[in-house]
Specification:
Strand order of the largest sheet: 1-6-5-4-7-8
CATH superfamily: HUPs
CATH class: Alpha Beta
Helix content: 40-55%
CATH architecture: 3-Layer(aba) Sandwich
Largest sheet: 6 strands, mixed
Oligomer: single chain
Shape: globular
Structural class: alpha/beta
Order of helices and strands: HEEEEHEHEHEHEH
Radius of gyration: 19 Å
Distance between the termini: 61 Å
Length: 207
């Protein structure tokens, strides 16, 4: 289990605050979670949507989903990027330099993902960009520890509809909070791509 104090030391945060006007309910998967007739009370903390940041098509789709849900329920998006470091040289100075470069890259990864998914980090929802050193699955499960948290991860579909991502499988198996698994958009799924390729092949044969 991760030491939360060490995770906090290894994390870098940037926060944008706002005062959204939440609706009376938030759509989470196939069910609805009631927020209240006038939204969350001032004393109640905003629900946290803990997002595993990844720059794959499914990961960017999950990012957009998390931001949309935060707008609906007045939630706070915690975009978490997990990163690891394995020394590869005997030279300690070289390892320290490599460690700093990886840490800097992890800090940039979250803003770059938001830029790729929606142009920039949104200003109309509260967003924490967090880089934590550790394996992705355990980092996300440990970070999403509050009862009201919602863990959001994107993943490709494997064979027979199975979850392809090991990180997503770990989160589903070990998380103590609800987990939303966001697939890639329909146009990016393998079946749609195969249909497009077959259509291109037919067009070429007919010309």
């Amino acid at each position: 289990m991760l030491d939360r104090s060490s995770a906090a030391r290894d994390s870098t945060r940037w926060t944008r605050q706002l005062s959204p006007t939440p609706p009376t309910s938030a759509r989470i998967g196939p069910t609805f979670v009631t927020i209240g007739e006038s939204g969350p009370s001032d004393s109640a903390p905003a629900p946290r949507l803990v997002l595993g940041v990844e720059q794959s098509i499914a990961g960017l789709h999950a990012l957009r989903w998390a931001v949309a849900q935060a707008r609906i329920c007045g939630g706070h998006v915690h975009a978490v990027r997990a990163w690891t470091f394995t020394p590869v040289w005997h030279n300690r100075a070289a390892n320290r330099r490599w460690h700093r470069e990886l840490a800097t890259e992890a800090d940039r990864y979250g803003p770059d993902a938001f830029a790729a998914a929606m142009g920039a980090v949104p200003t109309d929802v509260a967003v924490d960009l967090v880089a934590i050193k550790g394996l992705p699955g355990p980092v996300l499960v440990e970070y999403a520890h509050r009862e009201t948290d919602l863990l959001v991860v994107g993943t490709q579909r494997g064979r027979f509809g199975r979850i392809a991502s090991p990180t997503t499988r770990y989160c589903v198996a070990h998380a103590h909070v609800p987990v939303v698994v966001v697939p890639p958009p329909p146009w990016a799924r393998a079946a749609a791509i195969r249909r497009s390729l077959r259509a291109v092949g037919r067009d070429r044969r007919s010309t």
